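Exam revision sheet. Question 4 asks you to relate a sequence to its structure. Input first:
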Amino acid sequence: MTSYWLGKHRAEGSKPPSRKGISPSPEARQKQREKMLGFKHSETTKKKISEGHIGITHPAWNKGISYKSKEEHWNWQGGITPLNKLLRCSAKWQIWRNQVFLRDNFTCQNPNCEFCHNLQGVKLHPHHIKLLSEYPELAFDIDNGITYCEDFHLKSGLHRRVDLLCKQTIKNGGSNLN
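Answer key, structure tokens:
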């Protein structure tokens, strides 16, 4: 028994509490990694480890699922990629985006933005001034783009107005379409 455990109030035959289920601290793990760095197992130890793993499988391995074609996969939707995704993955989109950012000097164009305070170095989003769904011909028009910081773009409700307009149009039987 180690001397640290015995201390003042513990008898010679007592045992330390079990550490089962308690994971070591990150510092202890790092110290162990450094201690084991460069350590090589002997060939006999490698063989014992290998033999010990025989018959052990991971639960995911037991599923045995293999797909002969992509059409058999559970999430296959007929090869339909949304137009929005195709557009945003295109090279023309990247060029448009970069030109809008360059024109706006890589700063949020919302005056006195409470999220980024118009500083450079924040995550930026390009935004279409005229809706892309209503004006697809202006998709790559630099004058139809504006730079906003990510937080303002997502939290300001710029896209919520589109959803509200669509819901009102459905309620009114399409009378809002002009």
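Marking note for examiners. The beta strands are 124-128, 145-149.
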